[in-house]
Amino acid sequence: MFTTVGTRGTMHLGLCLRVLILAALTVPIRAAQPAQETFTLTVPDGPTSTLSGSSVSLLCQVSPVFNVEPLEVCWYHSSNIHSPALLYKDHKIQETPVVPRYRGRVSLTGGMERGNVSLTLERVTLEDRGEYVCQVSSEQWDEKASVFLTVNVTGSEPVLSVAEARGGGGQVNVTCSSEGWSPQPKLIWRNKDGAEIRNEQEVLNTSDPQGLVRVTNWQLYTPSYSDWVACTVSLSEEAKREGRILPHIYTAPTAAPGVYKEAFIVTLVLLILSLVIICALCSVILCKRRGSMWSSSQKSRNRSDQTELGQRPAETKNLIEGAENTVKTPSKQKAAGK
Fold this sequence. Notes:
Blueprint: H1 2-32, E1 40-42, E2 48-51, E3 56-58, E4 61-63, E5 72-77, E6 86-89, E7 92-93, E8 106-108, E9 119-121, E10 130-137, E11 142-152, E12 159-164, E13 172-181, E14 186-190, E15 196-197, E16 204-207, E17 213-221, E18 229-234, E19 240-245, H2 257-337
């Protein structure tokens, strides 16, 4: 009787120990497994900005927090949904299929054991800008969220130019132009005191084939000898350019129409006189050259004549001697015959 009860008690005690051991082993195993219920993704409300050539992190957090290492994480650009920028699967980052230009530049650095699947992109280029989609998938659930990336490129220093206004009235047309910006910058006019000059003219924005923006704006301004005007083009306080100009230096003094007419007549008369003087000088130079050429040719002729005269007496002497010999020869012949 006592033996039977003792045996049953031992059996119940062994069963309880087995249940306790199984429960103790099951708790940590379940804690290490990802939660099977639904989850959401938390991303920044506004765009994420970075400078060209730098590194940037596109934030994406799983909520509630749990270990997402067993899950699948995919990041892709909205323009290419079939080829991801990064694919995490089977506890490692897959080499394919991904867009080739992202290889070696992307990683997950947030801490997946804490539910952080943020994407880090290095050596950012202008081509990287746009919308990125963060996608986390489990066997029971799939969630997506978008992050917008803007790549800031600081453009050139503004170039200012001044032209006379059509209506006159002492005003000039000041133009400001700057190129090579991304995204579209803000253009502000300021006076020498730093106060903003309100301008009703619309800013003209044009893009080149690379997507960089050129901004141009103009305004009517009344110049003075001490006031300068400044044009500031900026993306932020850290990325801005400024150009200044003194408009009165580049403006010509205003004159009456009669003054312009008289100045034109005087200029025309001076031009005609200059042409006459130039023609007279050319004629004198030409005459001198012709006279020198004629004297040179005359001297050459005189020398040749003298040479010919020096040769003629000898020829004449030879002719006379020949004639005398001819006359003497018949006389000798007659004397011999006699």
